[in-house]
Design goal:
This protein has helices at residues 26-30, 37-57, 122-133, 184-194, 199-203, 206-209, 212-221, 225-237, 244-256, 260-272, 279-291, 295-307, 314-326, 330-342, 349-362, 365-374, 402-410, 415-424, 428-433, 438-443, 448-484, and strands at 2-5, 20-22, 60-61, 64-65, 67-70, 74-78, 82-84, 87-90, 95-99, 107-108, 139-141, 144-148, 162-166, 169-171. By secondary structure, the chain is an alpha+beta fold. The strands form five sheets. A four-stranded antiparallel beta sheet has the order 1-6-9-2, with no helix packed on it. A hairpin with a 2-residue loop joins β7 and β8. Bound molecules: zinc ion (ZN).
């Protein structure tokens, strides 16, 4: 009925009467899964590594040698369609696999995503070893089969100490090279993010041989922060030089998870070790502090960054500014906007919207206008020339009047503006009452048109927002109704 294509290697056991025929279940078949040469290639490759491992490391259990080996199947194809009623069972020329069965209790020891049953040290250590041995080219995993124990089923050599595996997965450089279970390099990363070295790994000295950075990076990227930290710790303990990639991965991972103190600690360690820091190192920490609205800490790190001669970018400043705004520290936000402008950086739209929203909420149109100019979102900016000097930080921003602070901020570089601020001050009360009207116009006649256009701009924006919300409300109602129907 079936024709045999090639011969299988039934290592470890004599071919008996009993054989296992493997073919794809119809549901999986319909989703496109097939048995191919790649499955046999994976088995052969795994067995090559197993053989090399047994010879090189001669694992033992007690004093007895402990071998591991893989079943290698043979591909055969059906000579005709075999149906179960009208449903496919096997189609003509469809490939199947013939194998000697695994005798004894069948267990799964680890998966192709790094899960481990925790039974026996050898499977996990072997998987890891294949990766180290191949320099990252292959990772043999998804180890399942029978763990031969004293008193149990023996091999043809009479040994009770062995692992007989079948259907391994190979994670190679390019996913799919060894069939659908081959999740490629990404799969390797995931596997390592779950793998914890056991005593066997350690006795093989595998820890020192791995690329720490790739493991740290894998853990960090998959959100396993503690594990990323653990690996960086081990790397340092082992005396392996950690570089900016090692530290930045961990710092960023900690920061992303909101573990500010941990992120800070690693940045401090990085600095202490004399490892070159960059904007990324600091921005992660600054952003984490800012997310917690811990302005002081965010500021401290930004100042530290600048004092270390690291070029702070838009992200560095924007994080701090956003935190200031969210905490209602508008003066401080203004101060950092100044610093940002002085550094020649332009705020992006998000930052602009954040500060503009705060000004709008506070009904502070003047401030908005100043900030708009500061952020160079207008052609006719008062800050174009000359460049600003470093402004002094408002010491206690909330207790100072806005005008005083503005005077601090705008001193030196903007004498004209300061003068205007001074002149305006007596009119503060009336200006508030008149909603940015006459008092301002009286002292600054040239600004009338700008004020009016700003008012219109905000009015239009508000109308647009209301309309948008109405549309959204109607749409979501409609969506709910159509979902119900
Ligand atoms: Zn390990």
């Amino acid at each position: 009925m079936a024709k045999v294509k090639g011969t299988g290697d039934f290592y470890g056991f004599n071919p008996g009467e009993k054989l296992v025929l493997k073919f794809i279940k119809t549901k999986k078949y319909n989703s496109g899964v097939r048995i191919t040469e790649k499955d046999v290639a994976a088995q052969k490759l795994a067995q090559q590594y197993a053989k090399a491992f047994n010879e090189k490391h001669r694992p033992v259990r007690g004093k007895e040698p402990l071998d591991l080996f893989f079943r290698i199947g043979t591909l055969i194809s059906s000579s005709k369609d075999q149906l179960d009623g009208t449903v496919r069972k096997i189609l003509e020329d469809e490939l199947m696999m013939v194998e000697i069965p695994i005798y004894g209790e069948f267990k799964k020891f680890n998966s192709n995503t790094g899960w481990s049953s925790g039974e026996g040290n050898l499977p996990g250590a072997f998987s890891r070893w294949t990766w180290v041995e191949s320099n990252g080219k292959h990772l043999i995993c998804d180890l399942q089969g029978h763990r031969g124990l004293p008193g149990g089923i023996k091999t043809t050599d009479g040994s009770s100490n062995y692992y007989a595996f079948s259907d391994p997965a190979v994670l190679s450089k390019v996913s799919g090279s060894y069939g659908p279970a081959d999740l490629g390099e990404e799969g390797q990363k995931t596997w390592f993010s779950h793998h914890v070295c056991n005593d066997f790994c350690k006795s093989l000295g595998l820890e020192g041989k791995v690329s720490y950075n790739s493991v740290i990076n894998a853990c960090a990227q998959t959100g396993y922060v503690e594990r990323a930290e653990m690996w960086l710790g081990r790397m340092l303990e082992a005396g392996v030089q950690a570089n900016e990639v090692s530290y930045n991965s961990v710092i960023n991972a900690c920061a992303q998870k909101g573990r500010v103190s941990r992120a800070e600690m690693w940045l401090e360690k990085m600095l202490a070790a004399g490892v070159k820091t960059d904007a990324f190192s600091y921005n992660s920490v600054i952003n984490a502090c800012a997310q917690r609205r811990d302005i002081e800490r965010a500021e401290t790190w930004l100042e530290k960054m600048l004092s270390e001669g690291i070029q702070a970018d838009e992200v560095s400043y924007s994080s701090v500014i956003k935190a200031c705004v969210q905490k209602g520290e508008l003066d401080l936000a203004g101060y950092w906007l100044e610093r940002m402008a002085a550094a020649g950086l332009q705020a992006n739209e998000v930052t602009y919207n954040t500060v503009a929203g705060a000004c709008l909420a506070a009904g502070d149109k003047d401030r908005l206008e100043r900030w708009r100019k500061l952020m160079r979102l207008e052609e006719n900016t008062v800050l174009k020339d000359p460049p600003l000097l470093k402004p002094s930080r408002p010491s206690s921003c909330t207790t100072k009047s806005l005008d005083d602070v503005d005077q601090d901020i705008l001193s030196d570089a903007l004498p004209k503006r300061v003068e205007e601020t001074r002149r305006r001050r007596p009119a503060t009360e009336s200006r508030k009452k008149e909603d940015g009207g006459a008092a301002v116009r009286k002292h600054r006649p040239t600004q009338v048109s700008v004020d009016r256009s700003n008012t219109w701009m905000w009015a239009r924006l508000l109308i647009m927002l209301v309309v948008l919300q109405l549309i959204l409300a109607v749409w979501s109602d409609y969506a709910v109704q159509s979902a119900k129907s």
